[in-house]
Amino acid sequence: FVEATGHEPPPHWPGITPQTEITDHPVVYIFWDDAVAYAEWAKKRLPTQVEWEKAARGMDGRDYPWGNQEPNAELCNFNRNVGGTTPVGNYSPQGDSPYGCADMSGNVWEWTDSTADKGRFRILSGGSWGADNITRLLCTAQRWHFPYFETHHYGFRLVVSA
Question: CA–CA separation, 144 vs 68, rounded Å?
Answer without folding.
Answer: 24
